Amino acid sequence: QEKSCHLSAALLGEDSEISQDQLYELLKYAALGKCHNAAQPSWCRIYHQSHLAGVVVVVLHEMSQLHFYRFYLQFKHLRKIFRHRFTLAPSANFPTSLYGEGANLKPQNSPQGVTSTSSECITKSSDLQCDPIIQRYGDKKQGLTSYTLTLKEQKENDYPIEGSPGCQGYISTECDQPRTDSSPLFGLDCEMCLTAKGNEVTRVSLVDARGQCLLNELVKPESTVLNYRTRFSGITRKMLLPVKTRLSDIQTRLKKMLPHDAVLVGHSLNSDLQALEMIHPSVIDTSLLFARNEGRRFKLKFLAKAVLGKEIQCEQKLGHDPTEDARAALELAQFFIEQGPTKVAELNLEMLLTAEKLAEVSQNNAVLQPQGCRFQEQLNEPPPLSKPCFLDCLQVTGQKPLLLGRQGLDSSGLCQSNLSTSNKQILQRALEDVPLSKFSIIQFSLDPEYLASHLHAGLYEKVRSKLTDMLTIYAGPFEENFCMKSVKKEFGRCGPIQSLTVVTETFQPYVCIQYEVLEAAQLAVESLNGAEVAGSCIKVQRPVTAAMLDCNVLIKELDLDVENEGVIYVAGLKKSLTETDLQEEFSQLKDLETLFLPKDLQSGKHRNCCFLKFQKTQSAVDALEAINGWTMKGSKLRSRNALAPGHLWRWIWQMNHNNGKQGKHIFYEKMEQLSDCEQDLRKKVKKLDHHIKKLYRSLQNNTLCVVLFPGVNSTHGSQSGLGLMGIKDDGGRSAC
């Protein structure tokens, strides 16, 4: 049974702010595993990394944490999918920090011994013994039967086998005669489209040992076609309209054409046989024949050029030619058999591949330089100390990362870059191309006018004002000579107070209390409204402003936020209690995972509240019921579900204290230009959220998805970014 990947991260308090280096650390390990010195990230853990289906990074260009919380209600799907969030330190050069300065590979960085005539490199015989081809086949020439896959190898590589699960109804070629070294070879290749059933054959090609085409037939799929994969298959809807041939017809023809001792040759032939729903006992798979370390495989296009000197799958053509691919695979097998393992190993294919990639990078840099891409200048000026880029490591493993977006993020040539003109176009390309790539970076962006610096400043002011309103409560009325000390004590049990002032403009006195955390203000509204405080029965409410009309909706959504599942807020703690004291006091609570004790970021003193994170949601519910009414060291505790743990707590504190000197309350300024476009901006954000939902739903299970609001770091000011991450599971939500 396939193991499911999952992710764990304790992102509370100071640990919830992640640097660009830490983000890079995560992406490198997710992409490469333990290869190329990649290690588990220090701040989170990926379980069963080798079972990851892929990595998808969604970048929301020039957007920050500010945008996420200003349009929190519009990001409906984004906040429901991912339960791991972190504040991201902003970077002046985000693309470089995302995949490393090593993306500036230059031709002079070529491995030792590789020159423009590297195809003539000779490997020392002492090194040959370490070559995976020699280790697998020895150094002597052998007949073709030595290179056919054993039954065990077929099982390990997902070949259809008689009686195996999932092969019910498959047709046998009935080629059951014993094979000899003179048995005939046949090259086979298929093109597939994606249908409601899965991968279905749309074209089949078969060539004989002389390379002559015996079969080149279009096939009508049985199920509704979801994606013709035209860029790769060359198949279009128009081509298949007149086709009458079905899979059963092809199966019958192949059975008749193949002699009883036929050996089929192909590149990753298991995919072709699975799509054909046919079982054949004797195969040579060129993706395995030209062996590499750690389960990696060379691409057919590279092998055809490096070994045969032939160019196939040219970009000028629409899609692959299956006859050309079948013939290339056949000739590669014939070359291997005729020349023997030693001659093949002496080609030094790994070195050739690296040289090819470096030449490609050099060429792409030369082509891209005049275009003046946005980040070109920055990427071509390597810093004194640069970290290695993991994209070139992916190249060596035969994977080319995919980059889709409107901006020139990659000037290195290490990605399959496709610039599009709209988010809709980007989404369509992503739905088509992401399933074919192991590592993808998808960049969406709002129109530039919405991200102008003066509008950004206006957004910041609005978010700060709304947060201040949500942290503020009014309580009263009180008697003329009420005891302020009693009021402060009672409301202080709900959480840390930043300011408390008396409102004198009213007939009877009221107090205005501004808290440091959202939970404290909400707890005061829920527990003290209608209570008797300082001898008066009081009403507790938040300020009434236009921006606060949706406050209850916002609080409800924060309550339901997946990030807050299993996290509770506890207030009323004595400041004399240490973290060790609290750990001991709360140790009896079942499944307690983390305790976070907020501190004043200036003085370092802890506040009179804490957050408790539990491994299971039900354990948090039980703890909430148990804690309410607890007395700890003579102090009565109050608690509720968390609204803003981790990264948001720290951000609120900073915004709150940056504004503290300006008075107890901020009123909205008139920002006409922002108000005019904000409604339109909400619609665009909502559409962006829908695009991400659609992309996420299309991902395979066990795909790591990271959504990044990179933040802003410019002359106009700095705003922290935000990261959301998770591994997709069967339920369509990110796995913990």
UniProtKB/TrEMBL annotation:
Entries under SUPFAM superfamilies matching the protein: Ribonuclease H-like (SSF53098), RNA-binding domain, RBD (SSF54928)
Domain called RRM: residue spans: 471-545, 566-644
GO molecular-function terms, A-Z: exonuclease activity; RNA binding
InterPro entries from the UniProt entry: Nucleotide-bd_a/b_plait_sf, RBD_domain_sf, REX1-like_exo, REXO1/3/4-like, Ribonucl_H, RNaseH-like_sf, RNaseH_sf, RRM_dom
GO cellular component, one term: nucleus
Pfam families linked to this entry: RRM_1 (PF00076)
Record CDD domains: REX1_like (cd06145), RRM1_NEFsp (cd12273)
SMART domains with a match to the protein in the record: EXOIII, RRM
Highest taxon above the source species: Eukaryota
Keywords: Exonuclease, Hydrolase, Nuclease, RNA-binding
PANTHER family cross-referenced by the UniProt entry: RNA EXONUCLEASE 5, RNA EXONUCLEASE REXO1 / RECO3 FAMILY MEMBER-RELATED
Protein name (record): REXO5 exonuclease
Source species: Sylvia borin (Garden warbler)
